[in-house]
Give the backbone structure.
Amino acid sequence: MGRLLFFSFVSIFSFLATFSEVVITQHHVTAFPLSTDSRWIVDENGQRVKLACVNWVSHLEVMVAEGLSKQPMDAISKRILSMGFNCVRLTWPVFLVTNDTLGSLTARQSFQIHGLLESISGIQANNPSIIDLSLLDVYQAVVSSLGDNNVMVILDNHISKPGWCCSNSDGNGFFGDQYFDPDVWITGLTRMASMFKGVPNVVGMSLRNELRGPKQNVNDWYRYMQKGAEAVHSANPDVIVILSGLNYDKDLSFLRNRPGCFLGVAAELDFDWALWTLVGSYYLRQGVVGMNEYYGVLDSNWREARNPTFLQQISALQSPFRGPGLSEANPHKVIFHPSTGLCVLRKSMLEPLRLGPCTKSEAWNYTPQKILSVKGTYFCLQTDDLAKPAKLGIICTDSNSKWETISDSKMHLSSKASNGTPVCLDVDSNNTIVANTCKCLSKDNTCDPQNQWFKLVNSTRSSTMK
Ligand SMILES: *[C@@H]1O[C@H](CO)[C@@H](O)[C@H](O)[C@H]1NC(C)=O
Ligand SMILES: *[C@@H]1O[C@H](CO)[C@@H](O)[C@H](O)[C@H]1NC(C)=O
Ligand SMILES: *[C@@H]1O[C@H](CO)[C@@H](O)[C@H](O)[C@H]1NC(C)=O
């Protein structure tokens, strides 16, 4: 459970940017500057850029991006790209840039202060060039390695005092807390923005992670967030400014019980996001040396993906379904299956419908009569008998061709079998689309409905259809 916990929301309320470089992402060439077009982030050609980020932690006591004792930074950057991310949310603590004593420590000194001698030898083996650089230079080296690999970076001010985040009483939660002096914060943001002015792959800055705690209030939020955004833009007009909401950015706790739900919503709204977290293990976290990160995308050696199934689940969310630059000529739906990250498609006319990569999805129409038809054809989705594969038919007026979204989640797609029995779309062990008895419609907490959850997602992705 709790895949949702892997996600830290990047709530993007405003973003402005100007840039004049080019980054090649997996999918297409992104021409900077990035800017906004209503809710979308677009590049200079007006093409949508979907930020599919992973968080890389660099705000703990040592203030060195995690994992550099395990793998060369270039290998980590390449691994990030190969896992389908186009962006890193790289965290930093305010004091790294506002306290010269801290910022000018070398990586070696910082590890020594915390007694992390093993990490020093790890860094000497994997990233010898950074061991005697200052902490600020190390941070810049990481950004530049990501840039060399065409990974975009969002500089995320995660906390003031270096250390694990976040609780309501850690003194870092809201303006006026023990370590959260608004003026020092503004100074920090300004220095960071200036430092990365003209660095093309630094596309955004998030002003502060997860505002929270007893002092939080809307007036101060407006007052200081505006100040922060202005400070960033006067130092560096090229970056998108990303703001955090109150209450740890947003109260999404209700989603925790329904992580499948979550991936469905993420696909439906097609929002930009950053996954918590890249980190496989930490040099030092909460007093524990080498602490394993169970939410890490990478394993504790920073070598392999911890959970390839999960990467498949999110892969459909790593590129845009719609938005500026994607053809508007072909609006359609895809039938997304959140718990696998796959979509409904047909391999050939002769084989039953099955789940497959969303890039190969059929383009569906969902009509006011609740018929799901394959665009440009007469075929519509139909049930046959209970527990039999769903099929495509051409007589689309009977009740076995009508699909309602039912249950509290609105993620069950329900129709009637040819004998009139209510059924729901389901997936068998071979990923074939079948019609089964609807599961979990009553309030039974032990029942897991995820296999029967589908989401009709708006898309204008070009269809690979025949
Ligand atoms: C800077 O950091 C050092 C080391 O943690 C600390 O002793 C010092 O008080 C800090 N200086 C300021 C101005 O906060
Ligand atoms: C899955 O495919 C295998 C091999 O084709 C077959 O033997 C098995 O019965 C199928 N399972 C289901 C649930 O249809
Ligand atoms: C999907 O498209 C339909 C029809 O254009 C529109 O009414 C609906 O609001 C869209 N849904 C989302 C989540 O944007």
Observations:
- Residues 125 and 303 are 15 Å apart (CA to CA).
